[in-house]
Amino acid sequence: MDLGIRGKLALVTASSGGMGRNIAHTLAGEGADVVLFARSGDKLREVCGEIESRHGVRATGVAGSMTEHADIRRLGETLQALGGPDIVVLVSPRPPNPLRETLQENEQTRWDDAYRNQLWSVVEVVNVAVPLMLGRGWGRIVAITSASAKQPMAVHALSTVFRAGVTAYMKGLANELAVRGITVNCVAPALIDTSHRQGAAAYSEAQAARRKSLTPMGRMGTQEELCGVVAFLASRQAGFVTGATIAVDGGMVGSLF
Ligand SMILES: NC(=O)c1ccc[n+]([C@@H]2O[C@H](COP(=O)([O-])OP(=O)(O)OC[C@H]3O[C@@H](n4cnc5c(N)ncnc54)[C@H](OP(=O)(O)O)[C@@H]3O)[C@@H](O)[C@H]2O)c1
Q: pTM (2 decimals)?
């Protein structure tokens, strides 16, 4: 199926590695030019090189932090110079480590960090990207949130609170941007394989086994399964889907909707 995004410009944030990198590859594989944003200039250069040689599209890296206003302003300037984005995929940095029980989340610095990493960063990127999208009658915005916004998970209080905030913000944006032809949706993952992450942040075997037992499918999801849903929401065919959250969690969330 042709997703109708060949030649479009897609911004993917937090994309020098992990999910963001894989999403950028997926959209580039469908013919979109991509702009990648993350802190490490070296990693961005490597990923942009990979994308250009593998998919034959243009890939532009902007080095900066989603928590730095000046960096996001620079990102906006690059987007403007490239003609403005058609597609914006908002991947945000992870919540502070180590994860803690709710009652132990009692330090203001961790709450401040989580707010800036996960909610304010999204608002900042929207502030620079969306004004560049308004005049063209077509656009796609997809935010990666978390299944925990719908079914809070143990030790995920920070992520739950701020991803629920992102979901609410995206819903408001969807309502306002619908008449402009811009759809705004969320993808809410859980249990997606993160074996790309090295060291302490990756799941141990015991943690992975415990996590698999949380889902009816009894396995972790793949990055490809996550990226495919994002690509669908970015596609021409998803034009009548807006204000929605699509779970990619192997059936973990037990609610009807
Ligand atoms: N895996 C799941 O099942 C699941 C479920 C729910 C939610 N999520 C969320 O999905 C998101 C992506 O997960 P992941 O596994 O891909 O994470 P990851 O492997 O930790 O990737 C993080 C990416 O974010 C970039 N980054 C980190 N801090 C940044 C900052 N301040 N500004 C700009 N870029 C920054 C990193 O690049 P630099 O270091 O170069 O900046 C890297 O490219 C996370 O927020 C995670 O919590 C995942």
A: 0.97
